[in-house]
Known about the structure:
By secondary structure, the protein is an alpha+beta fold. Helices cover about 45% and strands about 20% of the residues. It folds into two domains: about 5-145, DNA repair protein Rad52/59/22 (Enolase-like, domain 1), CATH 3.30.390; about 155-230, no CATH class. It contains nine helices and six strands; from the N terminus they run αββαββββααααααα. The relative contact order is 0.12.
Amino acid sequence: MSNKDLWNRVCVTDPKAVKAITGKQYQGNSPKPYWIVERLTDEFGPCGIGWGFTILNERMERLTEFEILHVAVVRLWYRLGEQRGELEQIGQTKAVYAKKDGSLLVDEDAPKKSVTDALVKCASYIGFAGDIFAGRWDDSKYVTWARAQYAEPPAAPKHSPTDGALVDEARRSVIVDTAESIKDHFARDDVIGAYEDATGIIDPEEKTALWKLLPSNIRSALKKHAETLKEPA
Length: 233
């Protein structure tokens, strides 16, 4: 087994699970914590059986007269095959701080947020959401590619009684152009490009019309590619 087998399976983040960082002095993106929990479960099994975590310690630290920081140290453990792994990280959240109007805000959820922060950091060290922490989400081309990995598969549409006949003439030319583009991609062995073109057609009637314009070998290849994307990342 390659040392990066696990990393390669979990490093690409679902775009739906990416959120912009707010309330910080810096900008960027971060993964939604519960998506990390779900992916940990996908890989290792239910929490408490295949993976879990322990809060080793937590404390409050005064930063200024009006600011108090909550800090938590968390140990993540997991089972990979016959082996057990574990690692530790620190998470932190401002529990008390001054707002712009000078009033104080007390965040009663600070301990929970610190633990979550530490857990996500631990998971990142074994590859989860690795593309975000590696800065790849700053590249628009990479983001487009990541979206394609999680795009809904262009499964063969169930032919309705109208069989695509409700597509108006203006849209029909778009469907024809899309079909030709897909064929061109296949002629260059570019299955990913063909798949992206196919997933760009959303309307059921238009999907049906597009499917009818594609030869059987291309339809089969698109379905096969869609099935590979459904496999655990």
